[in-house]
Write a structure and sequence with these properties.
By secondary structure, this protein is of the alpha+beta class. The chain is built from 20 helices and 22 strands. The protein starts with 6 loop residues before the first strand and ends with a helix.
């Protein structure tokens, strides 16, 4: 670690998943960057479950990779199990997920940060911001050291005024055994930010030597592994299984009998938790008709016996946690290495941010990750990367990068946060994305790698590799259009096995591929062609099978782009628009939408108001 200077281009506060992406982006952009973290050892640490990706989240990681971020590479370096979720469904619904070796992931990301050119790391706590003339000019550390900067990015995670709950006991902390950042939360309130509180939690960590795996079902990863990063060529680590067990009626009775000792159900925890990832207490109470809930025992790594029981997040006292676990099959004699706990932490209303993630109250100040009201490593990394990109672009006096909803999951994530806000920890899902057929995992490189090179984070060689992929896809599509197969016994027997009608006349392979139930692999055998790699064959199959859907989707996007392309100038005078109600004027003044499209997505903005704005902007 280098000794911190007094002046930087960018200061990043927090060394979690958002902070790592933001800091690496700053350094790779050629700007003098400082990462301030409470512990350099914990840079890139996985605070909760040892996994990356999942439904809707895998797409975010692929997009981070395509734009030049690091999370996908770190995931591949630490992966001990790969799974393609929703593999039986269409490509638009599929998402990658890996189990990671927690220590190796932490080591990989910490090493990347510490070795990055133009990036210094300082172990300290930021207590205040230096703000002059409504612009952020740097930070003040706990000891009172002032460090100046052109831009500051806050990525505080659960450390911002964090309060840990274990049973009815509670104490300040950002993670178990680590201090919270209390002064910075006070500083944000002092500077006029609307600060709220959210809640999350984690599970107990279990000693694997005390688990009876012989009675449990093993869950193995995929045989055909698709790496997370588009640049990863081969796997590095041994692949290991997870194990599956279930809670039962006895488990649920123990939980119900101890609700008087639960901070969730005695009113000690007042903040809203993650609806889509509830504690075991919440599951038992909210789904009272169910006799059991699935528990996934996830290995923490190759060099440890510790397991993470995904599905049993809890803040009940330690003795109750032991009783709960001992009631579960395979865990009758399990020993707890670390107890589960709940944590409340502060966040800033994300509607106080522009789509660049710069705050509307203070220029030069950016926020990313859980401070924006999100939950999850993947959401944090996406926001950290975008905050880093936009801070760098502003310093270089370049146009900001705003991804729209038809371009990327990241575009949906940011637009949802800054336009709609959130009253609970925001989690990404495929169902949130209107144009998911076009913004799939497999084509993230085609969609975003050119943008990544433009902002200086993607090399020419990576972009060239992606362009070569496009050429191969187009060549294969032309080949499938040119090859005509006759109604032979071999072809019709193949179609019969696929429950598809036989052909009575010669047919082009691309027409056969359009049939339901027929895949690219199936037509390869009919035409005796060589198979492409995973990404290439998916692109070929989607382009041919869903050609009509894609064409229709692109037409819909063009209509939406008409209003999204109408930019609203900064400082636009909404009082000059005749016919707007006072309520709508106030909303527009508060949200400060960057385009007519964003204005139309704000809750309560009527079509009539959008029409009036359109007329005024045309004038």
């Amino acid at each position: 670690m280098a000794r911190a200077k007094n002046k930087y281009d960018i200061i990043v506060v927090g060394g979690g998943h958002a902070g790592c992406e933001a800091a690496l982006c700053g350094g790779r952009s050629g700007l003098k960057t400082l990462l301030v973290t409470l512990s350099a050892e914990k840079i890139g640490f996985m605070s909760c479950n040892p996994a990356i990706g999942g439904l809707g989240k895998g797409q975010l990681v692929k997009e981070v990779d395509a734009l030049g971020g690091e999370m996908a590479k770190a995931a591949d370096a630490a992966a001990i199990q790969y799974r393609m979720l929703n593999s039986s469904k269409g490509y638009a619904a599929r998402s990658s997920r890996i189990q990671a070796d927690r220590v190796k992931y932490n080591q990989y990301m910490r090493e990347r940060v510490l070795k990055q050119k133009n990036l210094d790391v300082l172990e300290d706590e930021v207590a205040d911001l230096i703000i002059k003339d409504k612009a952020c000019k740097g930070v003040v550390t706990k000891p009172g050291k002032k460090i100046n900067a052109s831009a500051v990015i806050l990525t505080t995670g659960t450390f911002l005024n964090g309060l840990i709950h274990l049973g009815l006991e509670h104490f300040p902390g950002g993670r178990m055994g680590e201090q919270a950042c209390i002064d910075l939360s006070k500083s944000l309130k002092k500077h006029g930010f609307s600060v709220g509180s959210l809640k999350t939690g984690t599970t107990p960590r279990l000693d694997g030597k005390t688990i009876d795996f012989s009675v449990l079902k093993a869950q193995y990863g995929d045989k055909e592994v698709i790496p997370f990063s588009f640049s990863t060529k081969k796997l590095k680590l041994k692949q290991v299984p997870c194990y599956i067990t279930q809670t039962n009626k006895k488990t649920h009775k123990i939980i119900r009998d101890n609700l008087d000792r639960s901070p969730l159900y005695t009113g000690v925890i007042k903040s809203t938790g993650v609806r889509y990832c509830p504690s075991i207490e919440d599951k038992v109470l909210r789904f009272s008709g169910r006799d059991s809930h699935t528990v996934f025992l996830e290995p923490e790594g190759l060099d440890t016996d510790e397991y993470y029981p995904n599905g049993i997040a809890t803040s009940l006292p330690v003795d109750v946690q032991e009783d709960i676990l001992h009631s579960v099959k395979g865990l009758e004699k399990v020993r707890i290495n670390k107890p589960g706990y709940g944590i409340e932490y502060d966040f800033v209303d994300p509607t106080s941010l522009y789509a660049t993630l710069e705050t509307k109250i203070v220029s030069g100040l950016y926020m990313a990750g859980q401070i924006n009201g999100t939950t999850g490593y993947e959401e944090a990394a996406s926001l950290g990367l975008m905050a880093g990109i936009n801070a760098a672009l502003k310093i270089k006096k370049r146009k900001p990068l705003i991804l729209n909803r038809s371009q990327a999951y990241i575009g949906v994530l940011i637009d949802d946060l800054v336009t709609k806000g959130t009253s609970e920890p925001y989690r990404m899902f495929t169902s949130r994305v209107e144009h998911r057929l076009l913004v799939r995992e497999d084509n993230a490189d085609i969609r975003l790698m050119g943008i990544g090179q433009d902002v200086g984070l993607v090399s020419k060689s990576r972009l060239s590799f992606m362009k070569n992929k496009i050429k191969k896809v187009e060549s294969e599509k032309a080949k499938l259009d040119s090859i005509i197969v006759k109604p032979s016994k071999r072809v019709n027997d193949s179609l019969k096995r696929l429950n598809s009608a036989p052909i009575s006349n010669p047919a082009r392979l691309n027409q056969i591929l359009k049939r339901p139930g027929v895949s690219y692999k199936d037509v390869l055998k009919m035409g005796k062609l060589k198979c492409l790699d995973y990404y290439e064959k998916v692109q070929v199959e989607v382009d041919i099978k869903y050609e009509g859907y894609v064409r229709r989707e692109l037409m819909n996007i063009k209509k939406l782009e008409r209003i999204d392309s109408m930019k609203i100038p900064g400082g636009f005078d909404y009082s000059s628009v005749n016919g707007l109600s006072n309520e709508i004027r106030e909303k527009l003044k508060h949200f400060k939408p960057h385009s007519l499209g964003q204005a139309a997505r704000i809750s309560g903005i009527t079509p009539a108001a959008v029409s009036l704005l359109m007329v005024k902007l045309h004038k």
